[in-house]
């Protein structure tokens, strides 16, 4: 069945929050959930049930089946974003998990990106495309690498940093843990969208959340 115009409408972070999907979090344009299955057999059973639901809906998620959990990512690839089709399937997957007495663990969710500062994206992009062996996205990035446009800096400086995107209700705890582990706060000017931290040697990382990114 061809999706309707409404089913192709890309939903924002706020739209997804309003849907009140207890098990799921909107991270970097996708719906993510991790179900704590506890063992491989239960994980495989859940994966099979998700496969059946996906076939019925003609809408297919990305699955990560591991011994203690099953990770699920939903995105409508035809519009490169989350739609009502993803929300509907997310609810059905949660129902399937509950039928197996499996609970979700939203606190464990995160998406890692590597940011490379550069004054000339096009000059270095072909090299990284070849090294990583990945295709360029519509945003011009090479997941998990993305390019952050900066002014030219002749002096030595940190060129790479990690962006760790977590659910809004997880960000504060993650930042606190990093600070307790010897980190320092570089900037919270753009919090809760992102907070810049550094380790004891000054290497920086960002703890990001979807808040303010609609």
Describe the structure.
With 214 residues, this protein is of the alpha+beta class. Helix content is 30%, strand content 25%. The protein has five helices and eleven strands, in the order H-E-E-H-E-E-H-E-E-H-E-E-H-E-E-E. The strands form two sheets. The protein has a six-stranded mixed beta sheet with strand order 7-6-8-11-10-9.
Quick recap:
The chain has 214 residues and is of the alpha+beta class. The chain contains five helices and eleven strands; from the N terminus they run H-E-E-H-E-E-H-E-E-H-E-E-H-E-E-E. It is globular and about 55 Å long.
Task: Give the integer mean of the pLDDT values.
Answer: 91
Our estimate of the beta-strand percent is 25-35%
Q: Total number of β-strand segments?
A: 11
Described by strand count, sense and barrel closure, the largest sheet is: 6 strands, mixed
Poorly predicted sequence stretches spanning 5 or more consecutive residues: none
Q: Label the structural class.
A: alpha+beta
Q: How many H/I helical runs?
A: 5
So what's the overall shape? globular
């Amino acid at each position: 069945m061809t999706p309707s115009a409404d089913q192709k409408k890309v939903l924002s972070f706020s739209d997804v929050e309003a849907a009140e999907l207890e098990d799921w979090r909107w991270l970097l344009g996708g719906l993510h959930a991790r179900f704590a299955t506890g063992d491989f057999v239960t994980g495989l059973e859940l994966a099979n049930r998700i496969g059946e639901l996906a076939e019925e809906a003609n809408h297919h998620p990305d699955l990560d089946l591991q011994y203690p959990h099953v990770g699920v990512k939903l995105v409508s690839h035809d519009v490169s974003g989350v739609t009502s089709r993803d929300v509907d399937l997310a609810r059905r997957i949660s129902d399937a998990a509950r039928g197996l007495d499996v609970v979700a663990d939203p606190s464990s969710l995160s998406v890692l990106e590597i940011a490379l500062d550069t004054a000339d994206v096009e000059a270095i992009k072909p090299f990284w495309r070849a090294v990583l062996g990945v295709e360029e996205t519509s945003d011009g990035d090479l997941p998990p690498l993305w390019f952050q446009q900066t002014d030219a800096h002749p002096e030595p400086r940190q060129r790479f940093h990690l962006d760790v995107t977590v659910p809004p209700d997880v960000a504060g705890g993650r930042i606190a843990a990093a600070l307790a582990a010897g980190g320092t706060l570089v900037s919270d000017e753009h919090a809760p969208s992102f907070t810049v931290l550094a380790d004891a040697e000054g290497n920086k990382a960002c703890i990001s959340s979807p808040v303010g990114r609609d």
